[in-house]
Amino acid sequence: xxxxxxxxxxxxxxxxxxxxxxxxxxxxxxxxxxxxxxxxxxxxxxxxxxxxxxxxxxxxxxxxxxxxxxxxxxxxxxxxxxxxxxxxxxxxxxxxxxxxxxxxxxxxxxxxxxxxxxxxxxxxxxxxxxxxxxxxxxxxxxxxxxxxxxxxxxxxxxxxxxxxxxxxxxxxxxxxxxxxxxxxxxxxxxxxxxxxxxxxxxxxxxxxxxxxxxxxxxxxxxxxxxxxxxxxxxxxxxxxxxxxxxxxxxxxxxxxxxxxxxxxxxxxxxxxxxxxxxxxxxxxxxxxxxxxxxxxx
Amino acid sequence: xxxxxxxxxxxxxxxxxxxxxxxxxxxxxxxxxxxxxxxxxxxxxxxxxxxxxxxxxxxxxxxxxxxxxxxxxxxxxxxxxxxxxxxxxxxxxxxxxxxxxxxxxxxxxxxxxxxxxxxxxxxxxxxxxxxxxxxxxxxxxxxxxxxxxxxxxxxxxxxxxxxxxxxxxxxxxxxxxxxxxxxxxxxxxxxxxxxxxxxxxxxxxxxxxxxxxxxxxxxxxxxxxxxxxxxxxxxxxxxxxxxxxxxxxxxxxxxxxxxxxxxxxxxxxxxxxx
Lengths: 297, 274
Known about the structure:
Distance between the termini of chain A: 19 Å
CATH architecture of the largest domain in chain A: Orthogonal Bundle
Number of domains of chain B: 1
Number of domains of chain A: 2
Mean pLDDT of chain A: 90
Number of strands of chain B: 0
CATH topology of chain B: MetI-like fold
Oligomer: heterodimer
Shape of chain B: globular
Structural class of chain B: mainly alpha
Helix content of chain A: over 70%
């Protein structure tokens, strides 16, 4: 770049041709902030204000109600089943799709993303069609005294469907960008497949994996539509936290509904916190790598 | 097998086998079940069930509100993306992180808090309801909930494009005497358009299937504030499986058409990056 060096005071108000005038700039910032205030900050703040609108004591009583506790337990159980399965799937899908070439790869990736484009209600309906009383396996299940729909297995299945792509979709691009050289080097040096996976592949995709896991977990704990269709809404038995929020809200106990909702909002904030941390780390590592590259030159 | 010729890595059979097995069990078989059931319907039955007056009213609300919400997000999402990338102001990083909040917040909580905010006694409703703007239990409430749910899409598809935009072109335009406004309309806007359209389509697709947040804020009155996914749930509660399936097929067809459109848009917009 050929630049004439002109020493200007850094506080110069002179406006560059590629910048808006300060008035326009601050009006745009103001509008953006107003929009975010109404649609992001107020809804968030409102959850906690409403949860504590009847005081600490009411908040704690609402949370320690047996139905609330069982909803919390069920939500944790569902996440504890769905997330690990989807982690294993995500790693397997990442390995198969990113490290190998095969015909039909774009089709496979499309199919993995399929649950994203299905309405949660329709996802729930699919499992009712399979396992509901009038469904394909309904009669057989009934004869064997097995219950999937309106019971915990149905909730787990619907949640697995909804959260299916989360880990895989984070891992596939990360693994693709890393390539296969490191694994090949490990194998050449005598490591077996498992050692290569655990000691080479897994550490290299660690952050992408964590990112996928927290997104998967947030969705697994927060899913409403699909779970609502298959749960049967039995308080204390088949109500997850989001469903319990709806039930209490319909009983006109707004503060109680917001109390449980506040836990879910905390989960969302926690998820955002980890996500922001991971992105900050990634940016830092990138800058370090660039600096190291510049130093090497 | 080609991959064995070029690739020394083990585990293709194992991982691919597991992926296909799990994909079939969790996604493909449930999908096939729904399709088989839908194929069991005759054309006239399907048409009759999918186009009842109540269903048509529900589609109108679902697609209308989704379009308005996605359009709102296209406008304000572009604004937020622009402000986050181009300007520095106190709280910028915080705001940038908060943009993903609608992705992280369970939809039921979103619906609950929005319904409360815009109700007569809520923080915003106590100002807006006297002005005649009723957010709770109205079609407007559906739009509000869908705007919240779709908020991150336009911002997040636009940000990388804005970051990669070549400032030199803008400088050249300015040097040649173009006003800032003219530069924006003629130079910047055309390169942002594909990303904005992609974000719009993503927000629209997400909105069509949305259920959790709307249940709380809309009131779910048939013909007035009832969305298509809610009508599916109603059909199921009446044990009217075929009615539910017919509606679900309509929603699925629209989702897939949109998915195809999004793929085309992403292909188009990828030409504008770099």
